[in-house]
Specification:
Elements: H1 2-23, H2 32-53, H3 67-87, E1 96-99, E2 107-110, H4 111-135, H5 145-150
Antiparallel strand pairs: 1-2
Helix pairs in contact: 1-3, 1-4, 2-3, 2-4
Length: 160
């Protein structure tokens, strides 16, 4: 399971980089819906990272941040996940964590399921974002997992 989760996070980094390329057109960079949704995605990624590390703090994302700041935050988030995943062993996947924003009843899940949620949540919103890019006249990218596999599991290409 650990190998699959690491693959899902690697795919997520690649897919996020592809999304930022699609979003990088000057006329799309200021779209408030894209900025808000990407900010939310990053808030959730950072919150879950804190939960699984036992260091939970509410994310302090800036909803007014410009495109470059949001992109830098995303790159940093992926770096933080890579660092965490490099220390995780199979036994650590079974450790139970509590998701503090669902207090009643308490939401307690294994680390493996918390990590799965991060990837599925990102995939959901990334699809919404690609649809938004298309609606704004941009060119969305196909970031399906199978495409990533077919392309050789390439790493993220953040530079233009």
């Amino acid at each position: 399971m650990l190998g699959l989760l690491k693959d899902l996070f690697a795919h997520q980094a690649w897919a996020d980089a592809m999304f930022f390329h699609a979003w990088s057109k000057a006329e799309l960079r200021q779209d408030p819906e894209l900025r808000a949704r990407v900010g939310h995605m990053l808030d959730v990624q950072e919150a879950f990272l804190g939960v699984v590390k036992g260091e939970f703090n509410l994310p302090q994302g800036d909803s007014a941040a410009d495109f470059d700041a949001v992109k830098a935050r995303c790159i940093a988030a992926h770096g933080a996940w890579d660092a965490f995943l490099s220390t995780l062993d199979p036994a650590g996947l079974d450790r139970i964590v509590q998701v503090p924003w669902f207090p009643d009843p308490p939401c307690r899940v294994p680390v493996s399921e918390a990590l799965t949620q991060v990837c599925l949540h990102g995939q959901h919103h990334r699809g919404q974002n690609m649809s938004r890019i298309k609606a704004l006249g941009g060119t969305p990218r196909n970031v399906d997992y199978i495409i990533w596999l077919w392309k050789g599991r390439s790493g993220p290409r953040w530079a233009p």
